[in-house]
Amino acid sequence: MAFDFKGKRVVVCGGSRGIGRSIALGFAAAGAGVSICARGEDGLKATAAEIAARGVVSHYAPCDLASAEAIAGYIPAAAKALGGIDVLVNNASGFGMGDDEAGWEKGLNVDVMATVRASRAALTYLEAAKGASIVNIASISGYRASTRTPAYAAVKAAVIQYTTSQAAALAPKGIRVNCVAPGSIEFPGGTWEARRSADPALYNKVLSAIPFNRLGTPEEIANVVLFLASPYASWVTAQTVTADGGQLLG
Length: 250
Fold this sequence. Notes:
This protein has a single domain (9-186, 217-244), classed as Rossmann fold. Helix content is 47%, strand content 14%. The chain has helices at residues 18-29, 41-52, 68-82, 101-128, 150-170, 191-198, 200-208, 218-229, and strands spanning 9-13, 33-38, 58-62, 87-90, 133-137, 176-182, 240-243. Strands 3-2-1-4-5-6-7 form a seven-stranded parallel sheet, with helices on both faces. β2, α2 (41-52) and β3 form a beta-alpha-beta unit. The longest helix is centred in the middle third of the chain and has 28 residues, at 101-128. It is globular and about 50 Å long. 48% of the residues are buried.
């Protein structure tokens, strides 16, 4: 299955590192013009350069996705740079883990409201495109109770549920909306790489729950996102695809 996104315009919110970076590079490798945003400018510049090296239009802008004003500025700028928007990927997370005010605020503002606000800001452009789609990134944490990360689990459950509401509302406009729920993903500089040494007991507990005896890679999540945004999934909407290597079986 070869993905062909030549002529398509893709926006990845939270696209400078990890899963977001791999999604952005996957679309670029398939021929799409790509815009990415995140808070850290250094990471954005590096990933934008990798996108441009694929020979496609590359755009980036620093954006605090917890800010409604910042999102309202970024999405039109991305659409202008790309010439429109065919695909919106809502990947950003505030990683609000605990059960305190700060954890809930980060999760609600970024995981939930950035998804709502970016989708709303992109709607005019998506309506004008043919075969447009939104892909939201949640987590398997959204499926079950979590005493360790209650805020994170709750907001990811909200993203999964909101995906179905978006899909129902936007189907008459010809826009598909789906979601990906990754399991534990490891990459350089990421949370699970850090936990491998900082909290080996937790890392090994998670590892032991995965039948393939390894954590996932960002590229494996990107492949699912590209499928959901592609014509191969033209009759797929309102779905959350779990990509966890069987982690939930443990």
